[in-house]
Amino acid sequence: MLDNKTLYIVVPCYKEQEVLPETSKRLREKVLALRKAGKISDASRVMFVNDGSSDNTWPIIRELHEKEPGIFSGVNLSRNRGHQNALLAGLLTAVNYADMIISMDADLQDDINAVDAMVDAYHEGYEVVYGVRSKRETDTFFKRFTAEGFYKVMKALGVDIVFNHADYRLMSRRAVEGLAQFSEVNLFLRGIVPQIGYKWTTVTYERAERFAGESKYPLKKMLAFAADGITSFSVKPIRLVFSAGVIVFFVSLLMLLYALIAKILGHTSVGWTSLIGSIWLIGGIQLLSLGIVGEYIGKIYNETKRRPRFIIESVLNDDKA
Predict the structure, then answer these.
(1) Is there a contact between 184 and 197 (Cβ–Cβ < 8 Å)?
(2) What is the pTM of this model?
């Protein structure tokens, strides 16, 4: 693998005009240092993917490419498609030029120095290298509790996922070509990548505070992302609904038997509280069950339409595939 040394660092960007100047500066230094050390080729690039930003993100990317086309390249999506689709667009574009591809966020929370260890692992024969957080001291208690709880729930539901890994990873060209064979519209790359197989390892790093700008994943989006991850990779929630239905059915049979016995013995009473409580309980269970089933039906609906996951408007890259 030592002869296959072209690295592309894919960075999805959505309204990142505040952080891009610093991000590009640090990534430029990293690419030049790795080139000098002989770990990557001179054809290696940083590929920013503009996810339909309405600010100056794309003009900044275009200016970076114009100034240093030998380091910076860009992909401009026709409209905002979301982080996972933008990341996939970058990966499937970069695979035409690169031997290894590292994906990372633009906010500088991912430790850029971990790139060295990832590249070293690639040269040792690993085709997928996951960046794993060593600790979560920069997170609030709520964020740490919910994030770690999410990974534990995913594991409990049978999803093959790397604990405390987001989307900071290195993939070989062969691994990305394998990823391209997964055609689902509902993307949850943290769950898809482990399905590829191939030899893999992890690199630990400490995640920093966001350098500038605002998080693109507020609580609402985080919850939606978690729901997508669970329903895209596990049918256990539906099985839990079935199990709950069976339990409620048998409990209702017991209650019916109790009511008949009470009627025969003449111990019936008004029972308004128990009646109202039962109605609300059963109604809540039904609505919850319909909601869970609806999530899966919605996934099926999106998959059957086979709409494109992204549309690329333009690509800035001086390399030819």
Answers:
(1) no
(2) 0.71
